[in-house]
Amino acid sequence: EAGIDAKVAGLVYVSALSPDAGETTAQQYEGFAPASEFVIETTKDGFGYVSPEKFKAGFAHDVSDADVAFMRDAQVPINMSAFGTKLEHAAWHTKPSWAVIATEDKAFDQAMLIHMAERIKAKITKVSASHALFMTQPTVVADTIDQAAKAVSAKK
Q1: Cβ atoms of 126 and 103 closer than 8 Å
Q2: Which candidate, 131, 124, 108, places its Cα nearest to that of 28?
Q3: What are phi and psi of 48, to 5 degrees?
Q4: Which of 24, 43, 60, 144 is deepest in the core (most CB within 10 A)?
Q5: What is the DSSP string of 30-42?
Q6: How many angstroms separate the CA atoms of 38 and 73, rounded?
Q7: How far apart are the first and last CA of the chain?
């Protein structure tokens, strides 16, 4: 929803979901293979977190054990009802988009990530990494953000 702000000139998705207006985040998974190694455990109060036992395999298999332990233990639970909330606006309809896709991401089916990136007509960059590519491939992520910034600045 924040992408619709007039101050936002372009969008960069980093192994991320890109629902359309009227869709929920949960709907993005329909028709795609489930993420068997990425397991979200839900508490009685409706909050979820990545299973501590599956965290490394499902979220950050290419991250050092020390960093994995920190990330695993520092998780902030997410209100699972957020996955059922319908998006009201999809900025990717009117703003240029880029997508960095981690080819070893176990949180999402690769076909799903590619489908979403192609649907939003994103310029796609693929990189060998887990879902934690922001840690393991920061240069690729930063370069993509830089390319996006330069592209939208050139249009002004």
Answers
A1: yes
A2: 108
A3: -130, 160
A4: 60
A5: TTS---SS--EEE
A6: 16
A7: 23
Q: Give the type of residue at 6.
A: A
Cα-to-chain-centroid distance, residue 141: 12
Locate tokens 């990530």: which residue? 113
Per residue in 13-52, is it b (16+ CB within 10 Å) or e — as a string? bbbbbbbbeeebeebbbeeeeebeebbbeeeeeeebbbbe
The string of pLDDT tens digits covering residues 74-122 is 999 999 999 999 999 999 999 999 999 999 999 998 999 999 999 999 9
CATH fold of 2-22+31-154, please?
A: Rossmann fold (3.40.50)
Domain boundaries, the chain: 2-22+31-154
Q: Do 113 and 120 contact (CB within 8 A), yes or no?
A: no
Give the distance, in angstroms, between the CA of residue 51 and the centroid of all CA atoms in the same chain: 18
